[in-house]
Amino acid sequence: MNAKLRKVREDLDKRFDAYRAKRARAKIRATIIGITGSSGKSTVTKLLGHILASHGSVHTQVLANTMNSLVRMLYKRIKNPAELDYVIFEAGASGPGTLKPMADMLKPHVAVVTMVRLEHFSAFKTLENVAREKRTLVDALQPGGLAILNADDPHVIEMASAARHRVVTFGMSEQADYRVTDVHAAYPDRLTMAVHWRGGVLELKTPFPAEHFWLPTAAAICAALELGVPPEKVAASVETFQPLANRCKVLVTEGGPQFIVDAAKSPWHSIDLAFDMMAKATAKPKRIVLGQISDYAGSTRKYHYAYKTAREIADQVIYVGDNAHRSGAGQEDRDSGRFQELRTPREVSEHIKKTAVAGELILLKSSARLHLERIALAWTHDVKCWVPVCGKREGCDTCGLFEVPFEEHRDHVRQRRHARRWQRLRHLLGG
């Protein structure tokens, strides 16, 4: 089959899949919740799903947030739509025009917008373009729908001005319907906060190590309470939530370091948040490992600024990857060991293994490309996949092949599938 025919066939398959997805969406009677924003949407999605699971039957689609993911969710992954009370979908935008088709197909009853930041800078160019794209989820709400908006973000709250739907807001602003106060986190002390709303005050204990998680927590709580979950169930669910892998997930090793793994995303606006978390942490000593900054691969100025900030917080700063040379660290810092410039995650892992101090706190901060989570995993597993850039979008925890050399992944997966087929066949034959 030549390339042109293959392209035609792929286009026809996509159209047919979209047709089936629209038919499947029409059969869903559950409350549909769409969640978007430049940051925090994955945590909101997962946390809200966890809370609503105490109140009804939920299907949660997190991390896989593209049009193809939505299509597959609607006609493949939702098996028994009549049995569902809630469907939650995280909707991402990689450029202008990418979110609207998802919003139009999803037709949510509830739309949550966390924040507008200049992520995917090369595609969007301006904050206004990002806001315009995120707004399409609010515009796609069904009649009588509910928009849950961040009162502290001017680009988000602006979405309420012409909304044809009910609007509820959350934030630290005095005008917020769900007002957040008393935010505190200083690792190992986890985030605590209070939410003031028409039902009173909800005191919350969370598993998060940083104060900036107040925002996704507040968004999820606002949605849950508006959907009728009793406050006591909300508070209990928040306390038992397990944070997403690689999004400030804490790993405490026996007799070794404590890791905060923030290696799923690294937009510029998130760098100071991660550094602020480390500055407030009381655990010592501290190290910061910085890899790829999203959308600023070649910006020496950004890497310079990040190093100047990090060295004031941490006892050692390690830059890793193709941009490690952009730190601007002086020779004195290099000679003293205050700064380390390394090329691969494996080199960082070996360096930390040799120099680790029991109880020290290490931040692993990077975009997903470098898979810095392997540095933490190497303390509890025999990591053998150390290829610098594997090309896989999912984290190593999801991939699950980090104990297999990269060049053996394909054969390993093939053998695993073969074994599963034989297992199913034996089960069918009663063996």
TrEMBL record:
InterPro entries: Mur-like_cat_sf, Mur_ligase_C_dom_sf, Mur_ligase_cen, MurCDEF_CellWall_CoF430Synth
Biased composition (Basic and acidic residues): 331-345
TM stretches of this protein: none
Keyword RNA-binding part of the UniProt annotation: no
Keywords recorded for this protein, A-Z: ATP-binding, Coiled coil, Ligase, Nucleotide-binding
Residue numbers spanned by region Disordered: 325-345
Coiled coil (UniProt feature): 2-29
Protein name (record): Mur ligase
Source taxonomy: Bacteria, Pseudomonadati, Pseudomonadota, Alphaproteobacteria, Hyphomicrobiales
